[in-house]
Amino acid sequence: MKRDAAAEPAPPTAPGAAGPGSRADAERGARRDDRWLDALMNVAFLTLLCGALLRFLINHPDSPRLPWVIGLSAALAVLQLAGPRLTPRLSRTGPRRAELLRFGLSVGCWVVVVLLAPSFAWCAVPLIYTGLRALPERGALALVAVLSTLVVYAEWQLRTGIDPNLFLLPPTVAALATGVFLYMRRQADRLRALVDDLIRTRRELAATERREGTLAERQRLSMEIHDTLAQGLSSQQMLLQAAERTWDSDPATARGHVRTAESIAERSLAEARRFVHDLAPADLAEGGGLAQALRALAGRESDGALRVRVLVDGAPAAPLPARVQSELLRIAQGALANVREHAAASLATITLTHLGDQVLLDVADDGRGFPAAELPAAVSDPAPAAVSGPAPAATMPGAGPRHRGHGIAAMRARAGRLGGVLTIESTPGEGTVVSAAIPLERK
Q1: Of 179, 102, 95, 187, residue with least CA distance to 141
Q2: Contact yes or no for 25/38 (Cβ under 8 A)
Q3: Between the CA atoms of 136, 142, 143 and 146, what dihedral angle is there, to the nearest 10 degrees?
């Protein structure tokens, strides 16, 4: 089904906002980075653990604490490597608490083994990082303080002389690493908040644009209905009322009015079907361009009381865009409806002028006209930025406010949507001229 550009607005996409595919890729990348970092931490922890155990075996091969040191070292290795797989099976409290349980067991084993063999002190570095990742900020800071204290104690046990670095180096390194980690985590939290805000703003913008598109489409449809079905029904009503008045005195004229009303009804039915099909004017859908469609419109609107003629000045350098042709035809329909209902004119002239960079449409009549003072000063215009001149709320001066009010406003809106202007010039007793000037894009 063919539609105008505004008929079905596409959901907007905010620039730079991640779609579902990009989000899934980002999640997969994050999981891959987590696995890589876990592997690095495992290698670092096992390297430090094996180095400390080897040092203890070399320096204390006959120590009675050796079985305990070896057992605790093995327990630490198992918890580090197999713990992520074992603890969820052993614990029924959920993966989060299972991970904390594994980490608590690792810290407990490390504390005992450091008290037995101070050379295991630097295995605290991976444990500190794991604690910073797993614990809340205050709990992580308390853990870092405890582990740093134990490292200082272990280094004091291994001292060979008085060295201030024994007391300064471990807490300084721990404080520096902790500060950098917490800073990066807070930055990540801020970035995550910004991304969430961007996503929320994107959704709100999409919803707003959908609402605006819906309102614009409703307005466009109301103007389409006004310029086709409503005008056809109005003409039929006028013709049938005239036929009723002359039915007894002049049956032939009355039957002529009825036949004309029947023709208008047939044409309105074609417009309705075309409206449902693709919202394009039926005259344009038949081919022949705008000039031919205007001539067909003039032929339908001409009768014994009103004669409508069409003049074409110049030729377009390129075929007019379909949207321009449709809007100009609707403007002509609306102007002729006003002439028939309010002007009491005997002649109306539609002039289509091609000027290269713009196209002009003038609808002039020789009716009663009206003074400029009868035009209201201002109304709410659907396209105020593109419309100049007065903007009357009524279809024509003198029209009742209860049932009128859309004709000229709709014509102005149509011209404004194309970047053009619609002007009205009228003098009492000399008729009215409705002019639409539409700019054309140069190719």
Answers
A1: 179
A2: no
A3: 180
pLDDT for the residue 9: 41
Identify whether the C-beta of residue 382 lies closer than 8 Å to the C-beta of residue 327.
Answer: no
Q: Return the C-alpha torsion angle 90, 96, 101, 102, nearest 10.
A: 80
What torsion do the CA atoms of 158, 161, 164, 167 make, to the nearest 10 degrees?
20
Q: Do residues 109 and 96 make contact, with C-beta atoms less than 8 angstroms apart?
A: no
Mention every residue, 6+ apart, whose C-beta is less than 8 A from residue 354: 312, 313, 314, 315, 316, 317
The CB density around residue 430, as the number of other CB atoms within 10 Å, is 13
DSSP state of 230: I
Instruction: Read off the tokens for 49.
Output: 């653990």
178-188 residue pLDDT tens? 888 888 888 98
Please compute the mean of the pLDDT values over residues 368-394 and round it to a whole number: 48
> How many other C-beta atoms lie within 10 A of the C-beta of residue 142?
13
Tokens encoding 207:
């919803």
pLDDT, tens only, 133-156: 878 888 888 888 888 888 888 888
* Cα–Cα distance for residue pair 127/147, rounded to 1 Å: 9
Please state the φ and ψ torsions of residue 5, each to the nearest 5 degrees: -60, -35
For residue 7 the two structure tokens come to 């008929």
Question: What are the tokens at 359?
Answer: 């196209």
Nearest Cα residue to 418 out of 361, 378, 345: 361
Residue 328's identity, in one-letter code, is L
Q: Which residues are registered as beta bridge partners of 309?
A: 349
Rounded to whole angstroms, how far apart are CA atoms 74 and 273? 84
Closest by Cα among 238, 235, 294, 232 to 269: 232
The CB-based long-range contact list for 77-81 (8 Å cut-off, 24+ gap) reads 77/46, 77/49, 79/105, 79/106, 79/109, 80/42, 80/45, 80/46, 80/49, 80/106, 80/126, 81/42, 81/46
Query: One-letter amino acid identity for 319?
Result: P
User: Taking the model in full, what pTM does it have?
Assistant: 0.41
Q: Decide: residue 94, CB within 10 A, 0-12 exposed, 13-18 middle, 19+ buried.
A: exposed
